């Protein structure tokens, strides 16, 4: 996910007796030691709370990137509770590093995230591009971001086989429907690839 420009933490697995545990951690250094914690929120962006003024445009652009990434990897379990926020100071919030992003090769390609009341669930790249301005992206910048995300997702087989991920060659075809589909083809055509 980091290759697609999504900041993320790391997972630590450990066993305690017969139970296995997973702990998600991230480097909060960018907060400069200020108060922080992770919360779930709706896209209404925390009524009564303000996004961090200097970071709000950056966070909106990052959120659009995540929506594009989730679409291209068939993360159909994407919902707004998966976009956490960090409290930085005085009721201001920042988008947390990405988490709970999983490809679903065996599922129908409909996201749980609604782009807007008019649009409904995110179903295609055209829908994301049509709303890019809402996230502070003009068409040129949206296509550039889409190109970065597409480039990372297109390398999924190499990444999956890496020691970092560890998918076995015999398992690749099982995952292919999550990464090789009409929306990836549509982005390639848009970008002239």
Roughly how many Å is the radius of gyration? 17 Å
In which range does the helix fraction lie? 25-40%
> What is the rounded distance between the termini?
21 Å
Largest sheet: 4 strands, mixed
Query: Structural class of the secondary structure composition?
Result: alpha+beta
Could you please describe the fold and organization of this structure?
Helix 1 (56-72) packs across helix 3 and helix 3 crosses helix 6 (182-191). The protein has one domain (2-191). Strands 3-5-6-4 form a four-stranded mixed sheet. A two-stranded antiparallel ribbon has the order 1-2. The protein has six helices and eight strands; from the N terminus they run ββββαββββααααα. Residues 24-52 have low confidence and may be disordered. Strand 5 and strand 6 (92-95) form a beta hairpin. By secondary structure, it is of the alpha+beta class. Helix content is 33%, strand content 17%.
Compact summary:
The protein contains six helices and eight strands. A hairpin with a 3-residue loop joins strand 7 and strand 8 (120-121).
């Amino acid at each position: 996910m980091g290759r697609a420009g999504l900041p993320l933490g790391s997972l630590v697995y450990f066993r305690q007796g017969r139970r296995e545990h997973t702990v998600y951690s991230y480097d909060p250094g960018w907060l400069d030691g200020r108060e922080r914690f992770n919360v779930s929120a709706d896209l209404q962006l925390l009524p009564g709370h303000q996004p961090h003024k200097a970071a709000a445009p950056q966070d909106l652009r990052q959120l659009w990137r995540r929506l594009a990434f989730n679409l291209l990897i068939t993360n159909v379990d994407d919902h707004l509770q998966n976009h956490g926020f960090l409290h930085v100071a005085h009721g201001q919030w920042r988008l947390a590093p990405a988490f709970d992003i999983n490809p679903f090769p065996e599922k129908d390609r409909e996201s749980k995230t609604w782009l807007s009341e008019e649009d409904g669930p995110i179903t295609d790249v055209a829908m994301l591009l049509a709303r890019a301005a809402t996230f502070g992206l003009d068409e040129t910048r949206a296509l550039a971001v889409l190109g970065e995300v597409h480039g990372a997702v297109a390398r999924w087989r190499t990444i999956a086989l890496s020691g970092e991920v560890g998918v076995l060659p015999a398992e690749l075809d099982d995952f292919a429907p999550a990464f090789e589909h009409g929306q990836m083809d549509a982005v390639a055509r848009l970008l002239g690839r």
